[in-house]
Amino acid sequence: MKRSKFSWAAVTLLTLVTVSCSKEAAETTPKPAGSAEPAATASAPSDLPEAATIKIYTENNTGWPAKEDWGVWKWVKEETNITVEQVLATGPESLALAVSSGSMPDIMSVFPEEVQKFGPQGAFLDLSQHMDKMPNVKKYLDSKPDVKERVTTPTGEILSIINDGAGEGNQAVWFYREDIFKKHNLQEPKTWDELYETAKKLKEIYPDSYPFAVRHGLNTLNYIGPSFGIYPELHRNPEDPTQMKFGMQDPAAKEMVGMLNKFVDEGLMPPDWLTMDYKAWTQFMTTNKSFITVQFIGQIEIMNNQLTEGNLKFMPPPLGAGTKGYLPKGGAEIYGLAVASTTENLDASLRYLDYIFSEKGRDVQSWGKEGETYTLVDGKRKFNENYKEASDLRVISGIQTAGTYGWFDFDAWMALVKESEQPPYIEAPKYRMPVAGDLPMLTAEEGATIGPANDQIWKYWTTETTKFIFGDRPMTEWEDFVKGLDKYEVEKIKAAYQTALDRQIANAK
Amino acid sequence: MKSTILKRFKKDRNYLLLLAPVLLYYILFKYVPMFGIVISFKDYNLFKGVWESEWVGLKYYEWFLRNPDAWNIIRNTLLLGLYRFLFLYPAPIILAVLFYLMRWKKYRRFVQTVSYMPFFMSQVVISSILIMLLSPSTGWINQMIQWVGFEPVYFLQKAEWFRTIYIASDVWQQVGFSTIIYLAALAAVDPQLYEAARMDGAGRWKQTLHVTLPGIVPAMVIVFILQLGGILELSFDKAFLLGNVATIETSDIVSTYVYRTGIIGGSYSYASAIDLSMALISLLLIYSANRVSRKVGETSLW
Amino acid sequence: MVKRGQIRIFDVVNFLLLAGIAFASLFPFIHMASVALSSPDYVVRNEVGLWPKGFQWDAVSAALGDERLWIGYRNTLLYLVLGSCISMTLTIMGAYALSRKSLLFGKPVMLIIVFTIMFNGGMIPFYLVMKSYGLMDTIWAMVLPSAINTYNLIVMRTFFQGLPIEIEEAGRIDGLSDFGLLRSIVIPLSKPVLMTVGLFYAVEIWNSFSAALLLLRDPNLFPLQLMIRNLVVVGQSGDVLETASASGKTVVLESLKYALILLGSLPIILVYPFIQKHFEQGALIGSVKG
């Protein structure tokens, strides 16, 4: 009795499923045929290389959900006769799974850490062996020695090519509520002491507020640190870029942590800044609860659009220690492109790379095509009406999204940034720290000697620093903390990376 | 001797026939992947594969033991698992009995239906709602605490709160759904037993104590063994999402550590070595649980 | 059963306790529904509590217009039906055989089975083996690797063992074979446990996404939960508050997320009350026992 009922239900469900299945299929099939096909056939000149299809693995961003009919892929097809299938990341583990299964997409967007992790295992093709097929890539690398230095492994291989051009957006800057400052006759703080005084005054005027707000939790120290002349972890010494240093060992780190401790203690920063996400931060910035912040440069415009009254303005980083307050070294990209060592579409993959790093590819993948995305007005390019702000380039056409470009023309992006929002892009580079926080590449053996020590030291300094900031450990014990770093083999790690840095410098010469 | 086995085989052949596909399943989907654990003794290279990778002996086990935090991580895992078990095991039993004693059937069914709903929410969603609720500056819980006149509590930035939050939210999420097995057991209790108890003059408490509870003891025993065995299976998602550098002293458990060093750090061999160590501890736990329950089970089942 | 009579203090306390539990359980759903139905201004400022502010359907209609939701539904239903059938069949077979007290090899087999609760090879080996079986990007990836849940198998076995021996003997006298006994006596008598275990399997399949995460690459095979999880995880990592929906309107990501989660859990919430009554029908077995 029960059984018959169950199977009846099963049959009904199955029927439902099949019906919806076939409906789905009927609805979806005509779409690709209708959208992609005619454009490709109509404009394909006869001198194009033979048709090919490659898979490209990219990030998956809800802000600009990937679409099959993005202009960027259409232009690739028109220019190179390559059809691109975009494979989206489904989470932080996606790349690890793709690599470990051996069924990798032909081309992958990768971070330097991922190259360091999977490169020695043999996941990626050594592109230096194929430069003869990629004259444009070679030209690109020759014109950018810093990029070339970053992508060359200790053994001279090139496993990925780091993008360039769009890094201007990857810059954390300081900004504040200009209207509030004016209203209360406050000046832009030049130093951290002034910042502290200003925040205190704001707190008096707005007792419910937390004048200084950040997000990204403790990672924020990477953005605040440069105003004290350091990054918190391992990085090249800005005074002598041939040496590695560990930021937390520098006396300036004590200044920084002590300062943050005062801010938290006196309610000048939200008590939950460690766990604040983007939404919480937005809420503070748009409801007169916070007035000063450190964030990515594009957020100034985004927040100004959200503010019902008042406006945010860029300010130079306040000086915390040393002679000059810095911003982190932005302006460089971190994403790069790698080719799978197992690819079966080697020629097409190389052709794709060569195209996006060529002058023509740079132009088309950044601006689109005349008539289609922009028109010429008085000899200057003007994007069509449907692109209202810069991020529309991503949403509508996929321009400046991972994997779709190699060498970006940032003028295309700036063309859609409001004139009133452009000054920060000109100002910020003046304050960049001379060195970035990225690390030289280790050999597999060097990596093995370090083992899990990197994680252990990370855990140690973050835990203890947090205690200092939140007042759970008195600042008088700072020296003990610094001594404690030795127990976690800080010198050993530093030495390993120093060797790697020496080699990188020697190779560059 | 041989003939008896043959005889028993003949007698049981239909049952063995039913068992065969089940056994096959276990071999194919559980035991074959288990041999992958050899990578913890090897320098596993993704492209060389399991068999071609070099043997390195106990290197990765040494790595873990050399870590000054190893003991702290194991301790966090054990304590979190143990406390979680202490609360998560009895909670559904109590709730099931409360349901059972609720006289207003429609209300009971309503609460029952509603109480299992959190079970269908993913940890990611729950964590983001928790972070919102517990914020000391904007969260509703702290607003209530302040409204009553206390100082706000920095729940997610104090190491001593982490376990409480983790376990409380686990109980909240699972208690309703976990009552199902007990409710099924309660439904199977013979009504005549209640009749008999009432005849003997037993009141409601006595009936609960002498009829209702014994009725669900078998279910309790099974759940006990299985939950004790899974004591170290702590949700990675939640520990990862709710933990932060301020609470890492209590929130860093084996799974988050394995994630950092294994998945993010790319050292699968190291991750497997830690996994195996924890599995051995788990094995020990379930073995002792089984011994305990065999004793308890025998006395209380009848 | 409990005698009907006057209301005691205990009943009042019990009533209030359960009311608290009901509220705690419902709260996030009400909150999510409110956010899903509120206008972006209020959502961004975190001003939405238990009631929508600036009521609007944009996020819900965007979610309904999202193709991925329906693909997810279709896939999840398919996995649910197929998976539950396979799982139940295998579990009943195994539990029935193992419920024989004197079964040949019964003990070692049971040990082999229980051992798998405590021990597994970890993610990467599992993944490699499943791949070598050719399960990648097939619907079997969603139903075979998790076909038997050892916990459920033991629950069912224990229940079968508890069935009164007299009935079985009566069945034998009526000339029933081993299979006939299972079909016409054991299964009909085990309705509550079959319902329970069936529900466990259904819920497990409904909630599962890790197998999909590991073994499915083709978005057209993604179950609902994986789709939701991707949206939530990916949404968290980006500097994004708003997203363009399929209909071209801009909606707050959080509203869209919650709308999808609610729509995604609706079916199981609606179906459950109908299953629930079966748990209360176990009296039959008790009467046989007595």
Describe what you observe in this structure.
- The complex is a heterotrimer of chains A (509), B (302) and C (290).
- With 509 residues, chain A is of the alpha/beta class.
- In chain A, 45% of the residues lie in helices and 11% in strands.
- Chain A folds into 2 domains: 44-168 and 333-417, Periplasmic binding protein-like II (D-Maltodextrin-Binding Protein, domain 2, 3-Layer(aba) Sandwich), CATH 3.40.190.10; 172-327 and 442-509, D-Maltodextrin-Binding Protein, domain 2, CATH 3.40.190.
- Chain A has 23 helices and 13 strands.
- In chain A, strands 2-1-3-11-4 form a 5-stranded mixed β-sheet.
- In chain A, strand 7 and strand 8 form a beta hairpin.
- In chain A, helix 20 packs antiparallel against helix 23.
- With 302 residues, chain B is mostly helical.
- In chain B, 75% of the residues lie in helices and 1% in strands.
- Chain B contains 15 helices and 2 strands.
- Chain B has helices at residues 2-34, 49-52, 59-66, 70-88, 90-101, 105-115, 123-134, 140-148, 162-187, 191-199, 204-229, 236-242, 248-251, 254-264, 268-301; strands at 42-43, 54-55.
- In chain B, strands 1-2 form a two-stranded antiparallel sheet.
- In chain B, helix 10 packs across helix 11 and helix 11 runs antiparallel to helix 15 (268-301).
- The two termini of chain B are 35 Å apart.
- The relative contact order of chain B is 0.12.
- Chain C has 2 domains: 1-56, no CATH class; 67-289, MetI-like fold (Orthogonal Bundle), CATH 1.10.3720.
- In chain C, strands 1-2 form a two-stranded antiparallel ribbon.
- Residues 282-290 of chain C have low confidence and may be disordered.
- The interface between A and B is large, with 37 and 34 residues.
